[in-house]
Amino acid sequence: DVKVTQSSRYLVKRTGEKVFLECVQDMDHENMFWYRQDPGLGLRLIYFSYDVKMKEKGDIPEGYSVSREKKERFSLILESASTNQTSMYLCASNRGAPTEAFFGQGTRLTVV
Amino acid sequence: AQSVSQHNHHVILSEAASLELGCNYSYGGTVNLFWYVQYPGQHLQLLLKYFSGDPLVKGIKGFEAEFIKSKFSFNLRKPSVQWSDTAEYFCAVSPSGSSASKIIFGSGTRLSIRP
């Protein structure tokens, strides 16, 4: 079974803190994704990586950056957390189009 | 830019009713299409997918979807819903032709089934 593991299920951070969300997949997938999920807005793509050290902006990259130093690991970084970044963050991976994406359990981040 | 529209935000049905959830996408090229489901407290999982060939695709748990290229639509159907189908359903699109492709999701449809 494909496994996508996000390091934390719940996080509470203070405004202005630098926040790291980690994601690891164990199936040697080329592509990895970070989404945020908000009620009524669905999943919005923040960043996407198609290879080590390669990344593309999604629809809402402002306030975020990413790092992919190893194929299996994709990190989302909130440079200076703000309350409007309180959300559920989902990591996903796939072998490349047209294959399906596999999702982690999500990290619910609260910024206070 | 690609976009996916799911016009039904919340659908409430009784058990055994038929279901159709709408999905329209905006993209000029060839696409791969997906429906994902998120049961309460669980991670997203694939219901079904369309890449090419027969535009009527069957997925898990009795779900099916029809790709109508001329309407840019990929509606999800089930002839008779069960209480266990209560979940949130997401339509997604990914351009084909490159393995390095984004997957764009719609805003989701929450389905509530009355027992």
Q: Number of domains in the coordinates of chain A?
A: 1
From the 3D structure, determine the CATH topology of chain A.
Immunoglobulin-like
CATH topology of chain B: Immunoglobulin-like
Number of domains of chain B: 1
- The SS-based structural class of chain A is mainly beta
Q: In CATH, what is the class of chain B?
A: Mainly Beta
Q: State the helical fraction of chain A.
A: under 10%
Helix content of chain B: under 10%
**CATH architecture tag of chain B:** Sandwich
Indicate the proportion of strand residues of chain A: over 45%
Question: Would you count the extended β strands of chain A for me?
Answer: 11
Care to describe what's here?
- The complex is a heterodimer of chains A (112) and B (115).
- With 112 residues, chain A is an all-beta fold.
- Chain A has one domain: Immunoglobulin-like (Sandwich).
- Chain A contains no helices and 11 strands.
- Chain A has strands spanning 4-6, 10-13, 19-25, 31-38, 42-51, 54-57, 64-70, 73-78, 87-94, 102-103, 107-111.
- In chain A, the strands form 2 sheets. In chain A, strands 2, 4, 5, 6, 9, 10 and 11 form a 7-stranded mixed β-sheet that branches. Chain A has a 4-stranded antiparallel β-sheet with strand order 1-3-8-7, with no helix packed on it.
- Chain A is globular.
- The model of chain A has no long low-confidence stretch (mean pLDDT 95).
- Chain B has a single domain, classed as Immunoglobulins (Immunoglobulin-like, Sandwich).
- Chain B contains no helices and 12 strands.
- In chain B, the strands form 3 sheets. In chain B, strands 2, 5, 6, 10, 11 and 12 form a 6-stranded mixed β-sheet that branches. A 4-stranded antiparallel β-sheet of chain B has the order 3-9-8-7, with no helix packed on it.
- Chain B is globular.
- Chain B starts with a strand and ends with a strand.
- The mean pLDDT of chain B is 93.
- Chain A binds chain B through residues 30-31, 33, 35, 40-45, 48, 50-51, 56, 58-59, 90, 92, 94-98, 100-101, 103-106, and chain B through 1, 6, 9, 32, 34, 43-46, 49, 51, 90, 92, 94-108.
